[in-house]
Structure formats: structure tokens, C-alpha cells
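Project standup — Tuesday

K.O.: blocked on the structure for the chain from last sprint. Re-posting the sequence here as requested.
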Amino acid sequence: MVAGHYKAEQVDSNKAAINNPDLKIQVTVDEVFDNDHRVVNTKGGATGKFTFSAADSGEHKICFLPSIPGGGGWLSGGQVSGAIRLTLDLAIGETSQIESTDKSKISEIVQKVKDLNGRLHDIRREQVFQREREAEFRDQSESTNARVVRWSLLQLVVLGITCAWQLSHLRAFFIKQKLT
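H.V.: unblocked you, prediction finished:
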């Protein structure tokens, strides 16, 4: 396990360090002995770290490419003009320190996953509750609609009987008066 910490500073003509927050560094690590197999390809800020595991011993090529997004004019393509001072600290084989920092990150991630699972469980419970409420509302709406249809049919029957009764009485009245 190889861990590297780097710090890049832009240097002016007086060799004074300039703090440029827009300075970005691309770090690549290639295994020269394995046909330049790329092990690491990360982009980071002016300070950062990178880690990789070297399965086999051999020569590795570490490349740092500085750039400033949108800086340096339209002809420079984001490349840094001037000099860059790079401070590099490599730790080879210090897996315990790396693993301890990784374990703290992993425990934070595990806690976030547990929180997300809890939220997901709450959302599922709320969805089940909403489905039950929708089913109850649907059943109540269907029973209300069925009662409305029955009441309407009853009214139609009563209206039909009333019409028949009135027509029979009106005919009896006309016969009595001898109008027909």
C-alpha cells in the first residue's frame, strides 16, 4: 500500500508562493513494469492525497499535471503559466494509518447508510398507510355511489307509478265528463 500526500503552490517570478484556490492537480500513477498499466487517475485541488496498492514490486511512474480551469487566457487551454512548487510525501507500507483513517470514513458511511435505511423504512410505512387510506376511501366512495344509484332507481319507480296513477285518474275523469 502506497499513500501520497501532495501540496502544490504557484510560484511567481520572485519565487514567492502564491495561494491560488483555482489550482487543480491531476495525479496519475502508472506501473512501468506492467506495460504502463494505469493504477491511479484522480483530479484534486492544490492539496490532496492518493493511495494505491502495488501488487508486484517494480518501477512506478507518478505524474502531476497542474491546471487552472478558465485561467491563463484563451490560448493556454487551462495550463499553468509560470512555475509550480510541489511538495510530496510518500508513505510506503503504512497500512495501519491508512486503514484507521479508512475505518473512520467507513464508520461514517455505515452510519449514513443506516440513517438512509431508517428513512426508507419510514417512507415504506407511510406508503402502506396511504394505500390503506386510499382503499378505505375507495370502498366508502363505491358504497356511497351504490346507495345513490339505488335511491335514483327507487325515485324513478315512484315517479313511474305516480305517472301511471295520474294518467288512469285523468282518463277516468275524461270518461266521467264525457269528453272522449
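K.O.: great, moving the ticket to review. The chain has a mean pLDDT of 84. Helices lie at 95-177.
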